[in-house]
Specification:
By secondary structure, the chain is mostly helical. 85% of the residues lie in helices and 0% in strands. The chain is built from 2 helices and no strands. The chain is elongated and about 55 Å long.
Length: 67
């Protein structure tokens, strides 16, 4: 068997990140549907959660190439 298991780890990190982004925006849509007037506050929170989740995916990509 040849290859590197770092890329498998990155694949798992990318799947986790995709699930996290899906859950964040599902909660955002649910919150806006229940309380439309709180859209501005929920938008900021959703974008912050999206940025943090994607930062973890990028960190996983960097570590996959460094190690």
């Amino acid at each position: 068997m040849e290859g590197n298991l770092n890329l498998v780890g990155y694949g798992l990190a990318a799947i986790g990140s995709a699930i996290g982004v899906g859950l964040i925006f599902a909660a955002y849509i649910n919150g806006v549907a229940r309380q439309p007037e709180s859209r501005a506050v929920l938008n900021q929170i959703a974008l912050l959660g999206f940025a943090l989740t994607e930062a973890l995916a990028i960190l996983g990509l960097v570590l996959a190439f460094v190690l």
